[in-house]
Amino acid sequence: MTCEDTRRLAAELALGIADGAQRAQALRHLAECAECRRAVEELSTVTDELLMLAPEREPPAGFESRVLARLQPPPAAARHTRRRRLLRPLAGAAAAAALAAGIVLAATGDDRRLADRYRSALAVGNGSSFEAARLRAPGQVPAGVVYAYRGTTSWIFVVVYRPHRAVRYTAELVTTTGKRLPLPAFQLDPSSGSAGQAIPVDLRSVATVRLVGPRRGDVLEAQLR
Asked: Which of 18, 96, 122, 150 is at 20 to 30 A from 81, Cα to Cα?
């Protein structure tokens, strides 16, 4: 998939509605193209901000149709052609806003269902939290993702993007007090760029996950919340 193809899908990727085949191709491209990743990340930020503005209630049945019906001009307006012509752009903008609101409300419903599944999954594993953080190379360049799970046994799972897989990394945790804890058993698979292991401390005490290469500057970091 080319950069142009990926940019056309950027909005769908940010909203999480791209179909499986296209999404898989786009994700392979994003793993190797920093510019396209930035474009999708910017759209994802906008999507997240819209979701934060949405109310917590589901829209009632027929909400969208009633809003759009009210945007139609009254019968008497047919005699005022010039006025209708002036108001048409405003009506179009209002209709677009109403449709956008409907999309956001539907998305928040999906988010609540996802949150329910998230809580159920944690309950099965006796866990209390699961999070992900961007792994970055020097200069804040996206280099991968760190997934972190807090439970009776806490663990991390790391995925490194292809351009950074040639380096042989060691892993360490930096606690909230500044203490460094090496993870000697951590071994990154060069083909998949992934590795994971249980960690010896509570996840709440971990501030940063670091992958350190043999050369100066070969450092990838992820800041945990």
From this structure: 96
Containing 143, the helix (H) or strand (E) segment is: strand 141-150
Do 82 and 13 fall within a single domain? no
User: Residue 221: beta bridge partners?
Assistant: 136, 210
Place of tokens 């799972």: 157
Q: Which domain holds residue 197?
A: 129-223
Transcribe 90-109 into DSSP letters: HHHHHHHHHHHHHHHHHHHH
- pTM assigned to the model: 0.49
Q: Quick check: is 72 in a domain?
A: yes
pLDDT tens sequence across 32-80:
888 888 777 776 665 555 555 555 555 666 666 666 666 555 555 555 5
Domain's final residue, options 123, 156, 175: 123
Compute the distance between CA of residue 167 and CA of residue 210 in angstroms, rounded to an integer.
Answer: 14
Long-range contacts of 120-128 (CB under 8 A, 24+ apart): 122/151, 125/149, 125/151, 126/151, 126/152, 127/151, 127/152
Got the DSSP string for 164-218? Answer: GTTS--EEEEEETTS-EEEETT---BTTTTEEEEE-SS-GGGEEEEEEE-SSTT-
| Greatest CA separation for the chain | 80
Q: Is the residue at 196 inside a domain?
A: yes
Among 196, 197, 194, smallest CA distance to 160 is for 194
The pLDDT, as a whole number, for residue 69 is 66
Number of folded domains in the chain? 3
Task: Mark whether 102 and 168 lie in a shared domain.
Answer: no
